[in-house]
Write a structure and sequence with these properties.
Elements lengths: L10 H35 L10 E6 L9 E6 L15 E4 L17 H7 L4 E6 L9 H18 L7 E5 L1 H12 L7 E4 L18 H4 L4 H9 L3 E3 L1 H10 L1 H14 L1 H15 L4 E3 H12 L27 E6 L7 H11 L3 H6 L3 E7 L6 H4 L1 H13 L1 H6 L3 E9 L14 E7 L2 H6 L8 H28 L2 H9 L2 H8 L10 H10 L9 H36 L2 H6 L16 H16 L7 H12 L6 E2 H12 L9 H17 L1 H6 L1 H4 L3 H15 L7 H13 L15
Helix pairs in contact: 1-8, 1-9, 1-19, 1-20, 2-14, 3-4, 6-10, 6-17, 8-9, 8-21, 24-26, 24-29, 25-29, 29-30
Length: about 725
């Protein structure tokens, strides 16, 4: 019999058990908060180093560069249990976001982006930054520092492929800028939860995008910088993030600690060490970010320029594959903000192919923004699979793909060619598929009006208000305001340095020694949980009502034709698309590509012939997965070194022949005998192609027909499959 149905005389004991447990949990919760406060103060006094669980060595310190920045490049030391870094393997570089917090989110636990790289034997580097910005530091100097870091990593590993670079959240747009300005310095890019199209989102679901317009634009960032005596306090950004989800900030996070205080304390302190580490930015840096990105949304439209006006950031300059990871559960960077820049830059997939660009995106169903970086499940599944598939991604013909990760099953064909417990596949997608993730882009027109209003308000503030605020500001006042920020003040108040908390540690130790947890079926404990759920639900309802009101206010203000006309915008035609190439340039590029490909129909090597027939036979496949590619790699490894193609040659051949087939498939197949005149090479090539096609299962009737057609063109009998030998 549960306590809920216990006899009346049992209730005094039930009540006593609950209140003892509740009082003990209260004391222990306060003690964890005390530890958090002490941890915060100790971390601050130590200079707020990165919250990495890995040891590292300093490689470059950008504070000494010609254009100094408070950034540094460090090399991660593999911990015990990880293999020694293989210098021949592609190095990994992780760039953490500078969005109020300090660095370390990409590696503050073993199962992380850094941990995945180290487990696979890759040299791993981390781009960190210091709490205080360098005087005069700008976003341009930060970007220049990151470019220098990436070039240096490439020089350290000349024998390996170019570095694989991961940009987390705000680190993603910084990475794109660096890659666009120095495309030769980077290998494949992974943008994890990175906002690029700041105006995008779904009506009724993504309210954060309205905040800039409702505040009147970017002038508030300037005001915060002036009050801070030329320094912007990152705690303001943290406050904004926390206000997004009041139920978690003001209740669920602390209640979860209270409810599970016997086991939750360590995890809570681990995360809070990073969450409570607030970093500073120069006023000019935050102004640039708010004016050009948050409010201006200029990155995808090609309007971001260097300070001297000599360089324009054009994302089409990036020459390596771009992988985008986003989640439907992310309320800070929804998939639309992570992906709509693709539709801004390119009219169609043909344009992507013409630019020789490969773009891959992967969507998670429910993980939240922070979970993208800190979840062990994400690190072990999505991050690990995308990282392990880098060579395949780099081999994909130019185009747009969606990465799909699924569990393997014992009866799955070609299981011997799958590494690990997951199978990763790449399905071709179109620009329409990207646009279908949104509910239309008509709502972005109002943001153009908001941007123009922001520019006007910024000019008014700079001319009339900023000089007054600067005159009233001082370093002591700025420091006092930073210390009074609730994000810092709450930690100090519960720390051991508050005399009012002097009794807590001893009492908490006594409570732990005499801990009496209540039974899970105690009716009062169940009532507590029900009340908590009700409070959480009420706060969620408040959030939804607040967000709905914010959206309505934004639309009422910025969708007004009167306001649009007043600021000089035709509201009916507002809503920009991205920075496309001029039509004559586009046409000339297409003509040159066709001319180049025309010479390649009848010219090439046996490798070109094999790549051509493989793509031709497998054209029916709706997805590309790792099984055929891994088998292909095994077959190459079994060849004599003198005859084996290099990975770079294989990738180039596949990309080249994909374009040739797209132009004229019939002519391309008819020319195969000229590329492979030797009959033995033809026979081996056809046999290898059949084996690769069969790695996913038995060839379809359509594929069999194409195999017979190719064999006939090459003057061969029907080829027999060539199986890879299993390694001992």
């Amino acid at each position: 019999m549960t306590q809920a149905f216990a006899a009346p005389w049992a209730w005094p004991q039930t009540l006593s058990d609950y209140w003892i447990d509740a009082w003990q949990r209260t004391v222990l919760t306060w003690d964890v908060l005390r530890q958090r406060g002490n941890q915060y103060l100790e971390h601050e006094e130590s200079g707020q180093p990165p919250v990495l669980v890995f040891d590292y060595d300093m490689v470059l310190d950008a504070r000494s560069f010609a254009k100094p920045a408070n950034y540094a490049l460090v090399r991660i030391r593999p911990p015990a249990g990880c293999p020694v870094a293989d210098a021949a393997k592609r190095p990994f570089v992780i760039i953490d976001p500078r969005a109020g917090h300090g660095p370390g989110i990409g590696g503050f636990k073993i199962d992380s982006e850094i941990g995945i790289a180290l487990k696979h034997g890759h040299p791993c580097y981390f781009v960190m930054f210091f709490p205080q910005p360098v005087p005069g530091q700008t976003i341009e100097s930060v970007c220049a520092a990151e470019v220098q870091f990436l070039r240096h990593v490439g020089e350290l590993h000349r024998q390996a492929d170019k570095p694989f670079v991961i940009g987390n959240c705000q680190g993603g747009w910084a990475l794109l800028m660096a890659a666009a300005l120095a495309p030769d310095a980077v290998g494949p890019l992974l943008l994890a939860g990175s906002p690029i199209s700041y105006w995008a989102g779904v009506e009724g679901k993504n309210p954060m995008r309205y905040s800039g317009g409702l505040l009147g634009g970017s002038w508030m960032a300037s005001l915060a910088g002036d009050i801070g005596h030329g320094v912007f306090d990152g705690a303001y950004l943290v406050n904004n993030f926390e206000n997004l989800n009041p139920s978690n900030t003001y209740w669920s996070k602390l209640y979860n600690l209270y409810a599970k205080v016997d086991t939750e304390g360590e995890r809570f302190l681990e995360f809070e060490k990073w969450w409570g580490g607030h970093y500073l930015m120069n006023k000019e840096e935050m102004e640039w970010i708010s004016q050009n990105l948050f409010v201006g949304n200029k990155l995808a439209s090609g309007q971001v320029e260097s300070f001297d006006g000599k360089h324009r950031v054009d994302l089409r300059n990036i020459r390596t594959p771009i992988v985008v990871f986003a989640s439907w559960g992310d309320n800070i960077t929804p998939p639309q903000q992570a992906l709509n820049w693709i539709a801004d830059l390119y009219d169609s997939v043909d344009d992507i192919r013409l630019n020789e660009q490969t773009i891959v995106y992967c969507l998670h169903e429910k993980i939240g923004h922070l979970g993208i970086f800190v979840s062990a499940g994400i690190a072990q599944r999505e991050t690990a699979e995308l990282a392990s598939a880098l060579e395949l991604i780099d081999t994909l013909p130019p185009g747009l793909y969606e990465a799909q990760i699924q569990d393997t099953t014992p009866d799955m064909p070609g299981l011997e060619y799958v590494e690990g417990r997951y199978l990763i596949q790449f399905a071709p997608r179109s620009i329409d598929d990207i646009l279908a993730l949104d509910d239309g882009r008509g709502d972005e027109r109002a943001f153009e009006v908001a941007h123009r209003v922001s520019q006007i308000n910024q000019q008014l503030y700079d001319r009339f208000a900023s000089p007054v605020v600067k005159a009233m500001s001082s370093e002591p006042l700025a420091r006092a305001l930073r210390e009074a920020n609730p994000a810092r003040l709450e930690r100090w108040l519960f720390s051991g340095r508050n005399p009012a908390m002097g009794w807590l540690e001893a009492v908490a130790d006594a409570v732990r020694a005499q801990r009496q947890p209540v039974a899970a079926d105690n009716p009062l404990r169940q009532a507590e949980q029900a009340m908590s759920a009700h409070i959480e639900q009420s706060l969620d309802q408040y959030r939804d009502a607040r967000d709905e009101m914010a959206e309505r206010m934004f639309k009422a203000i910025y969708e007004s034709p009167w306001l649009a006309a007043a600021v000089g915008i035709d509201a009916q035609h507002a809503g920009r698309r991205g920075a496309r190439a001029a039509r004559w340039e586009h046409g000339e590029l297409k003509r040159m590509k066709r001319k180049e490909a025309d010479a390649q129909f009848e010219q090439g090597t046996p490798l070109d012939a094999w790549a051509r027939l493989l793509l031709y036979v497998g054209r029916e496949e709706k997805v590309v997965d790792e099984r055929p590619y891994n088998l292909m790699q095994q077959l190459v490894q079994q060849m004599k070194p003198a005859n084996a193609p290099t990975p770079a040659a294989l990738k180039a051949a596949i990309k080249r022949q994909a374009f040739v087939l797209a132009l004229d498939e019939q002519r391309a197949i008819a020319a195969l005998p000229k590329l492979a005149p030797d009959m033995d090479e033809r026979r081996r090539g056809c046999a290898a192609a059949r084996s690769v096609i069969a790695a996913r299962g038995e060839p379809t009737a359509y594929q069999e027909q194409r195999l017979r057609h190719v064999a006939g063109v090459l003057g061969l009998d029907e080829p027999q499959p060539l199986r890879a030998r299993k390694s001992a």
